[in-house]
Amino acid sequence: MTSLVAILDLKGKPLIQRSYRDDVPSTCIDRFLPLVLEIEEEGQQLTPCFSNQGVNYMHIRHSNLYLLALSRRNTNAAEIILFLHRLSQVLVEYFKELEEESIRDNFVIIYELLDEMMDFGYPQTTESKILQEYITQESHKLEVQVRPPMAVTNAVSWRSEGIRYRKNEVFLDVIESVNLLVNANGNVVRSEILGAIKMKCYLSGMPELRLGLNDKVMFETTGRTSRGKSIELEDVKFHQCVRLSRFENDRTISFIPPDGEFELMSYRLSQVVKPLVWVEAAVEHHKGSRVEYMVKCRAQFKRRSTANNVEIYVPVPDDADTPKFRASTGSVQYAPDKSAFVWKIKQLGGGRDFLMRAHFGLPSVKSGMFGEKGKQDMEKRAPITVKFEIPYFTVSGIQVRYLKVVEKSGYQALPWVRYITQNGDDYSLRTALDKGGAAIVPM
Amino acid sequence: MNVFSRAAPKKGENFELRADLNSEYRDKRKDAIKKVIANMTVGKDVSGLFPDVLKNMQTEDIEQKKLVYLYLINYAKTQPDLVILAVNTFVKDSDDQNPLVRALAIRTMGCIRVEKIIDYLAGPLPETAAICVAKLYDLKPELVLENGFLEQLHEMISDSNPMVVANTVTALADIHASATSQQPSTSSSDPAIFTVTPTILNKLLIALNECSEWGRVAILSALSRYEAQDEKESEHICERVVPQFQHVNGSVVLGAVRVIMIHMRNVTREEFNRQLIRKMAPPLVTLLSSPPEVQWIALRNINLLLQKRSDILSNEMRVFFCKYNDPLYVKVEKLDIMVRLANDNNVDALLSELKEYSSEVDVDFVRRSIKAIGQAAVKIEAGAERCVNVLLDLIATRVSYVVQEAVVVMKDIFRKYPSTYEGVIPTLCLTLEEVDEPEAKASLIWIIGEYANKIENADELLSVFVDTFTEESYSVQLQILTAVVKLFLYKPDSSQGLVQRVLDTATKDCDSPDVRDRAYIYWRLLSTDPGAAKSVILANRPPISLPRTTVPPALLNELVGEISSLASVYHKPAATFIGQGRIGAESVQRRDSAKTALQTVAAGQASENLLDFDDEPAQEGPTGLAATQVLQEPAAKNILSGTSTNPLDDLVSIFGSASLSPPSTLPVGPATPVLDPFRGLSAARPPTGAPSLTQTTSNHQEDLLGLF
Which residue of A has its CA nearest to B574? Predict the structure, then answer.
């Protein structure tokens, strides 16, 4: 429950606001940023929720905006914070980018959305696909009266009736993102696989779908033995269309899908993953003159697979200059805005390894040198991060065994499945503290 | 009434808009409305255009209708008389064929919070407008009761459409909340009270699997209010709710966790409970892949859950390792949880991770990481030595704030393992010149004093500090004083001059009453009975340990029952941050100030106030400040008893027998260094550390009273 939702710019000025109850005056919005600054000035932790004079401020950041919700009650904080995230998602889907300008340009539609997505402070329909069916940007087209999609009042709130396709097709994308953290001495400290099954559904009518995976628990409960490998999913999350109680009972994934594109399920495995793309960097620091890097990159997967669009980000000191690069493959660029250089390899074959060298100049005088003692040693040591994509391959070995489509008209539908493995948002390898010792041998 | 509507100016933007609003062309009128709304959004006053905008309400164009409604919602309050003009259209719209128009009209009517319009609202209710009843109740409860809307709502729980059920539950819960917040003593016969009965329970459990995500959140919070009849029913509820762990929406997951934590209390089958706990872990871990704000809420709640059931995530410490780009508020919570999950098996992984964090750039985070190393050492005896080695490595970096924090942490380790790590003392002494923060300085001096008999040049080291005594901060002064006295007791021959000098300076040139008083006590102790002084000042310190909970057990139970709410996120009972009804904030503040006054006194900061303090604790009834209660009680009791009995007796009984008989007063007053390590450990969470802290200080004060 929330009394007021507002979107603020970085200066704390409200761009748009909608009050759902009048127990919180809108003057509280103006108090938000001063409070934030006050908390930061006092050296305290700024947290997403805080309370001041009986009003609770819950906020999230989205690029250069604050999305803020206010309440006087002991409200469900998880619900409200998630609602704010959902709101930002919906607005992004409507306007591509959510920023000051797009809000100013579209305030009418945002008011409408705020009105539909929340009533009296309680979240309502937040599925952007459903919303898009009756809140549209091309308002001048409204010669025909819009009626609310049945979905809003329907028992199946995510799918409208009467959908028709000439060719009935389903596309499944199994995408696995690998998050991993490698220590400076080369040990994998933490690794997890975040998987998602995305669906593009072009099916007529109200089809019933059933998805079969090589899920170990399912094989065990049904007493069947699997041919080949089965995998143990640690935690599975489903789109709201999936019948959770059936999954709980016999691990069957059955559902009536929404129309078009959506994420059917996501899962997590925390098995130990060998780093698919291994990177190590030897750094040689010559204080006050230059710094040299030797980066080694190895593809640690089978030969028949290839990693595409590999990008390796190696952090360098903020004040590095005059970059010089030499790479045995791909191209290298300096990205001063990220304080890093990027080594891009279009295609990295399995089992291959490559080398690259970088050389940077450093200013001879450092700002911190004459300041606080010891400060100059604490250089920012961001980890190396890697981006990649390996098609036709999943690390976990998950497989779609079948996808059954049943509709009362009895049409045949074609399922297509694609697999891909990529980096997660935290695929990082820590660099060793350089001791200034081992000199880098020339190539 | 606004001036503009009477005598409108003949020029300006509003004038032009007015002309456009009354234009004969539809497009022009619509554009004008848009401009009006745009002005409204940026905060310009367009209330003067009220009648002109209102004219455009009757339209087939649904977008235009929405805009006009939007305008109405904003300005109805300023123009209560004119709103009547809108009622006709509203009534007509609420009978419209198009359900979209119907819903819009009803919703808007509910939003326009003007008394006059309510009389028109009291028609039969469409089923989808459950929330509208809650709106109406908020404004005029009698009307809802008179028209029997509440009964209608209760019937709607049996509706076949799960969405209707969910919205009905939302409305009933909201009415319940506003009814109880206005008059807390409402009896259960009040129709506004929403009690979940066994029949409702079944309806809810069925609807739970069918409705939208936010509906599930509402139903789950209703389920958490249900009081199960017997153990079987509790088990049944748990079984039906467990599938919700698989929901993609984090608030549904947390809602399910809450229901299960509540109903699990009634279940005695340990095996069943263990299974539930096992199923709870993976979804909680998955919440850590959400956006940072959601992660933070999850982490705060996980922290609570771990205090309640330490076995929940026992094998999952690695998932809490901080990512380089995590915001600081997430990292801080993760650190806390990592220490909670530390055990003999994973302490190595934890330490190498904490060491890594200690070389990051953010000073605050680095300090907290070092603190966590100390906490791990205190918690896990088997890992203590490795912790000390890591700390020594950190001290070797010579980075100022790292060294200082490490010194503070070392002191805690000395408190826990008094005679194990004496070997590192020389290394610590070498940092003496770099340490400049009061806390670190005080810690180092405490260590020197504590081990004065083992450090050969302790007198040299301390005499440097005695020279600059008056320039130090009070906490450091107190430590210098105690350390020198300890040194004197260990080595009376070599340091007589030093102790004389420090007592002299402390009693004459120091402006802090605490320092002066302590100096006087030491002086008197030393001059009257050095034997007693020895047994007091060099007494064994009670061992410290890491508190397993940061909130008292009763409050913990309450908070676990409110998982995912603000109370569980703040780790504070709701009464401390929301008021009763709408005037609450002030009364809470008032209570807060009373609370802080009490705490200051209890902490012994204001010994002067001690005598006229009798009546204050009495005012503080059991008014729901459960968090502070633990802290207040012993403090108040001690102070009260201290003033009522003859304080001299206490003193005599303490000093008379060398064995320091009363166990509760074991950490005797003057030995206040006892406090500081404790404070260092629990700085972030005062309530748990506080009881013993207050005991010792109040004793300290009793002693004072006796002396003067």
Answer: A74
Task: Decide the pairing of beta strands A65-71 and A400-406.
Answer: unpaired
Which of A82, A80, A88 is CA-nearest to residue A57?
Answer: A80
Matching fold, domains A4-138 and A277-368+375-391: no
Question: How do residues A167-189 score in pLDDT, each as one tens digit?
Answer: 999 999 999 999 999 988 888 88
- Domain end residue (candidates: B101, B121, B141): B121
User: How many angstroms away from the CA of A279 is the closest CA of chain B?
Assistant: 17
- Record: contact A120-B134, CB cut-off 8 A: yes
- B432: three-class secondary structure by DSSP: helix
Concatenated DSSP letters for A60-103? EEETTEEEEEEESS--BHHHHHHHHHHHHHHHHHHHSS-SHHHH
The pLDDT mean for chain A works out to 85
Query: Is A331 within 8 Å of A355 (Cβ atoms)?
Result: no
User: Which residues on chain A are in Cβ contact (under 8 Å) with B214?
Assistant: 79, 83, 122-124, 126
Strands, sheet with A253-255, edge to edge from the N-terminal-most edge strand = A253-255, A208-213, A400-406
Domain count, chain B: 2
CA atoms within 13 A on the CB side of A188: 17
Q: What is the DSSP string of A164-227?
A: --SS-EEEEEEEEEEEEEE-TTS-EEEEEEEEEEEEEEE--SS-EEEEEE-BHHHHHHHTPPPS
pLDDT for A270-309, tens place per residue? 888 889 999 988 888 887 788 899 999 999 999 999 999 9
Instruction: Write out the E strands in B287-411.
Output: none
Q: Name which of A45, A119, A430 to mutate to probe chain B: the one with the most chain B Cβ atoms within 10 A of its Cβ.
A: A119
Facing B282 at nearest CB: one of A21, A55, A234:
A234
CA distance A346 to chain B (A): 26
pLDDT, residue B632, reads: 37
Query: Mean per-residue pLDDT for B146-171?
Result: 85
pLDDT in tens, B304-363: 999 999 888 988 898 999 988 899 999 999 999 999 999 999 999 999 999 989 888 888
Token code pair at residue A38:
């006050």
Domain A4-138 has CATH 1.20.58.480: no
CATH assignment of A169-273+395-427?
2.60.40.1170
Out of A22, A266, A270, name the one closest to residue B248 (CB): A266
**Closest to B113 (Cβ–Cβ): which among A22, A142, A145?**
A22
Chain-chain contact of A155 with B163 (C-beta, under 8 angstroms): yes
* Closest residue of chain B to A14, computed from CA coordinates: B42
> CA dist A227 to A384, A400, A404, Å?
40, 13, 20
The pLDDT value recorded for residue B187 is: 57
- Identity of the residue in A147, A148, A189 whose CB atom sits nearest the CB atom of B321: A189
For chain A, the structural domain boundaries read 4-138, 169-273+395-427, 277-368+375-391
Domain extent, residue B6, equals 1-121
Residues of A in contact with B78 (CB under 8 A): none
Residue of B573, B684, B677 whose CA lies nearest to B624: B573
A78 to B564: CB separation less than 8 angstroms, yes or no: yes
CA–CA distances in Å: residue A305 to residues A390, A425, B147, B622:
7, 22, 71, 69
**Higher model confidence: residue B166 or residue B697?**
B166
Structural domain ending residue among the three candidates B76, B99, B121: B121
Q: What is the mean pLDDT of residues A13-37?
A: 90
Q: What is chain B's mean pLDDT, rounded?
A: 77
User: Residue B252 pLDDT > 90, yes or no?
Assistant: yes
- The SS3 call for residue A390 is strand
Q: Does the residue B671 lie in any domain? A: yes
Beta-carbon separation of B174 and A122 below 8 A: yes
* CATH top-level class of A277-368+375-391: mainly beta
User: What mean pLDDT do residues B76-101 have?
Assistant: 75
